């Protein structure tokens, strides 16, 4: 079966991807094959990720903030960034999360809403992987409803007249938190919700790592605790006030998930194809049975439809025409289909599918988190519903 077309080859999508984008995708695939795939099962088993070393390697090939311009960033198309996310998540969702949080949340927030000084200080080092960022929005009691966050920043004028900020509160489920050099933290102020660039060596800042996870085990997940963290007046992101700031960053990250989830699903389907072509049962290959072929055909169709949707959204984004509701459509559909594919592939592998010798249950477990973060399924359903009806059902 090794000479058979891959599941996406049946759709003949080459004309929809430019040569440069295809070259970037192949470069990322090579990085995953050489530096991630040989180790990721062990990382997942141990609940660890050599994130700092990996960030430096990913920075060398220009993956961190690759869709941004200036400050050492590659300035690629949105579609190329999406294809990179696809290949990264084919390795593991945790690795793609490292890149997404670095580039589409922390770096994007500074790039889009920060001052010239903030950009100069952080973005070149972050694009090189020399500094790691995290993004503090979610709280223990404020997940899908970020407007209800309790973290607060207040002005505390210093004797020299400088208007320092003092931050108090906590954030939860923060990727990269325990290893970050800088945190973009969103807080309530008298002016509304504002973003702050917080060096993690600031007094009063701590980031205990969250352990005993059953999903995204090859990823650093943390709580952020801010206990009278004092920052200078210019620590605030000057170009945005209100929820539109963090939500614009989340839309960037969700776009990467639209593509990334396809990578996890493709890896599962390719694994199921290999296994079913090698496994002998009842005197023939498992792949020769009608029920197996029906499963493989149905999953291939859903994978191809997800890819077509992702590429269409990529072109809309490249043209500057994409909307947040369209990104929600992509995230809702593609993650939902990806996790269904991962679960179905596990049935083809049988008992072998529950081990780390194969990637399918690792991907399925990871996708349980991807299904929830950057907006739950229910949130995206309501975003699409509001676009269709003009009525908000959130409150």
TrEMBL record:
EC code(s) of this entry: 1.3.8.6
A Pfam family the protein falls into: Acyl-CoA_dh_N
Parts of the chain that traverse the membrane: none
UniProt pathway: Amino-acid metabolism; tryptophan metabolism; Amino-acid metabolism; lysine degradation
GO MF terms, alphabetically ordered: fatty-acyl-CoA binding; flavin adenine dinucleotide binding; glutaryl-CoA dehydrogenase activity
Region (Disordered): 142-161
Gene Ontology process terms (BP): fatty acid beta-oxidation using acyl-CoA dehydrogenase; fatty-acyl-CoA biosynthetic process
InterPro entries in the record: Acyl-CoA_DH_CS (IPR006089), Acyl-CoA_Oxase/DH_mid-dom (IPR006091), Acyl-CoA_Oxase/DH_mid-dom_sf (IPR046373), AcylCo_DH-like_C (IPR036250), AcylCo_DH/oxidase_C (IPR009075), AcylCoA_DH/ox_N (IPR013786), AcylCoA_DH/ox_N_sf (IPR037069), AcylCoA_DH/oxidase_NM_dom_sf (IPR009100)
PROSITE patterns: ACYL_COA_DH_1
Domain Acyl-CoA oxidase/dehydrogenase middle: 134-229
Co-factor requirement: FAD
Substrates-to-products reaction catalysed: glutaryl-CoA + oxidized [electron-transfer flavoprotein] + 2 H(+) = (2E)-butenoyl-CoA + reduced [electron-transfer flavoprotein] + CO2
Keyword terms of this UniProt record: FAD, Flavoprotein, Oxidoreductase, Transit peptide
Similarity field: Belongs to the acyl-CoA dehydrogenase family.
Protein name from the UniProt record: glutaryl-CoA dehydrogenase (ETF)
Organism: Nocardioides agariphilus
Upper classification of the organism: Bacteria, Bacillati, Actinomycetota, Actinomycetes, Propionibacteriales
């Amino acid at each position: 079966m090794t000479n058979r077309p891959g599941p996406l080859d049946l759709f003949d999508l080459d004309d929809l991807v430019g040569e440069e984008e295809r070259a970037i995708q192949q470069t990322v695939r090579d990085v995953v094959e050489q530096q991630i795939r040989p180790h990721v099962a062990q990382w997942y088993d141990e609940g660890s990720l050599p994130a700092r070393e990996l960030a430096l390697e990913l920075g060398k090939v220009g993956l961190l903030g690759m869709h941004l311009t200036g400050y050492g960033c590659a300035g690629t198309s949105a579609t190329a960034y999406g294809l990179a996310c696809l290949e990264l998540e084919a390795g593991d969702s945790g690795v793609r999360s490292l890149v997404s949080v670095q580039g589409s949340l922390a770096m994007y927030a500074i790039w889009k809403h920060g001052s010239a000084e903030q950009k100069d200080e952080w973005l070149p080092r972050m694009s090189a992987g020399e500094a790691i960022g995290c993004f503090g929005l979610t709280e223990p009691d404020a997940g899908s409803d970020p407007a209800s966050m309790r973290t607060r920043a207040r002005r505390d004028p210093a004797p020299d007249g400088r208007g320092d900020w003092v931050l108090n509160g906590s954030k939860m489920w923060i990727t990269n938190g325990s290893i970050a050099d800088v945190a973009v933290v969103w807080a309530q102020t008298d002016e509304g919700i504002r973003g702050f660039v917080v060096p993690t060596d600031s007094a009063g800042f701590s980031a205990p790592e969250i352990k005993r996870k059953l999903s995204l085990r090859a990823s650093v997940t943390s709580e952020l605790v801010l206990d009278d963290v004092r920052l200078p007046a210019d620590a605030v992101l000057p170009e945005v006030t209100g929820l539109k700031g963090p939500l614009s960053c989340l839309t960037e990250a969700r776009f990467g998930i639209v593509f990334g989830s396809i990578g996890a699903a493709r890896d599962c389907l390719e694994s199921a194809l290999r296994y079913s072509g090698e496994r002998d049962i009842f005197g023939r290959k498992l792949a020769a049975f009608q029920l197996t072929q029906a499963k493989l055909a149905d999953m291939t169709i859903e994978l191809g439809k997800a890819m077509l949707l992702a590429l269409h959204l990529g072109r809309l984004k490249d043209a500057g025409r994409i909307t947040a509701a369209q990104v929600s459509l992509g995230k809702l559909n593609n993650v939902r289909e990806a996790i269904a594919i991962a679960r179905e592939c596990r049935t083809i592998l049988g008992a072998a599918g529950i081990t780390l010798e194969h990637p399918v249950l690792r991907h399925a477990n990871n996708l349980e988190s991807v299904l929830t973060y950057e907006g739950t399924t229910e949130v995206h359903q309501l975003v699409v519903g509001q676009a269709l009806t003009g009525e908000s059902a959130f409150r």
